[in-house]
Amino acid sequence: MSTTVVRDVGTPYPFSVLGVQVNALETVNVTWEMERWIAKRDRCHFVACTGMHGIAEAQLDPSFKEVLNSADLVVADGMPLVWLARRHGFDLRRLNSHPGVTVPPDTATQSD
Prior knowledge:
Blueprint: E1 14-17, E2 20-23, H1 27-40, E3 47-50, H2 52-60, H3 62-70, E4 73-76, H4 79-87, H5 105-109
Parallel strand pairs: 3-4
Antiparallel strand pairs: 1-2
């Protein structure tokens, strides 16, 4: 999985949890990355939001693990993954609230 610069927050380096790459990003950083993708207009992207249950299911289902690892971003949905991100040295301050991961409508509809 490649790393990309996300405005002034640094690079969303992934960390591995049982073979699943998770990006240490908070909701605002995910939104900024989505806005960057929209502005670039190069291809389709997808974000996977998962917690430890998803990581555990990925151990039982290799095709699900492949889906998670092929996502452009995999973000923590639950405090256990936030704690693991912190243990890997990332400064995640809070749990992601994924219903709040939205791109403003004017951004999504802007033309070149």
